[in-house]
Amino acid sequence: MKLLARSPQIGTTLELAEREEYYYPNNIGRILLLALEDILGRHGVNALLNLAQHPELVNNYPSSNLEYGVTFSQISDLHEALDEMFGQRVGRAIAIHAGRQTFRRGLKVLGPILGISDLALRALPLGIKIKIGLNVFAETMNKFSEQVVRLDEGRDHYYWIIERCPFCWNRHVETPSCHLAMGILLEAAEWVSNGRTFHITQTHSIACGDSACTFEVRKQPLS
Ligand SMILES: [Zn+2]
Fold first, then answer.
1. Under DSSP, is residue 170 helix (H, G, I), strand (E, B) or coil?
2. Ligand 1: distance of its center to the CA of 123 in Å?
3. pLDDT tens readout for residues 173-212
4. Mean pLDDT of the chain
5. Cα 207 to ligand 1 centroid, rounded to whole Å
6. Residue 223: pLDDT band by 50, 70, 90 thresholds?
C-alpha cells in the first residue's frame, strides 16, 4: 500500500515507516523545472517530461508553495530521461548545469526566508563559512523536504551524505550519477566561498547498492 504524506506534519508521524514514495515541496520541484527550462527551453522540458512519462507536469508546473506535491519518482525519472535524451556525457553536463541553476534560483526564493542570504559576505574564515553553509543547507533540505542528508567531516574532506535521495530513487546504475545533486553542491560551495572552486566527487550511490549517496568535498579549494 502506498502511504502518502501530503504535509510535513503527516510526514513526521510516518517517518519511521519505509514508504514506496517520498516528497519534495512543490516550490523546489518548480524551481528544478525552471532551471531545466533555462537550459533546454520550455519545449525541451516538455519533451523531457514526456520521455520521463510524466505528462502531468507538461505546462503544469507545481505551485510556489511548500506543500509536498512532487514525488521522488518524478525527480528521478526526469534525471534518468536526461541521459536517455542526450546520452550519458551530455546528460551529465546538463544535469550539473541544471543543479547549479536550481541552487541559484532556490537561493533567491529561500535565502531571505532562512536568513542566510548574506552568509557569503560575512567576515568569517573560509573553512568556517563552508561548514556553516553546508550545515544550514542540509538542515534546510531535511526540514522542507523528505530528502535526508547529513554533513560529516574528515581531515581533508567534508562528506555530504544523502541517506534518502530523490535523484536516484528506484534507479540501478553502475557508477554514481546523482548529477543534479552534484551541480547543486558545486554551486552552494562556490556561493558561500565567494566564487572559490572546490573539487567534489560522488563516491557512493544508493542506486549502486550503497547505503547512501556520498559526495566528497575537498576542504582545500582548487582556486
Ligand atoms: Zn542518489
1. coil
2. 34
3. 999 999 999 999 999 999 988 899 999 999 999 999 999 9
4. 90
5. 6
6. confident
Report CA(165)–ligand 1 centroid distance (Å).
5
Ligand 1 midpoint to CA 78 (Å): 13
pLDDT on residue 17: 61
- Protein residues with C-beta less than 5 angstroms from the ion ligand 1: 165, 167-168, 178, 213
Find the helix packing angle between 72-86 and 88-114, rounded to 10°: 140
The CATH code belonging to domain 8-218 is 3.90.1520.10
User: Which burial class, exposed, middle or buried, applies to 62 when counting CB atoms under 10 A from its CB (0-12, 13-18, 19+)?
Assistant: buried
Report how far ligand 1's centroid is from the alpha carbon of 122 (Å): 32
CA distance 173 to 210: 11
Q: Is 60 exceeded by the pLDDT of residue 11?
A: no
Q: From ligand 1's centre to the CA of 102, what distance in Å?
A: 17
Domain residues of the chain, as ranges? 8-218
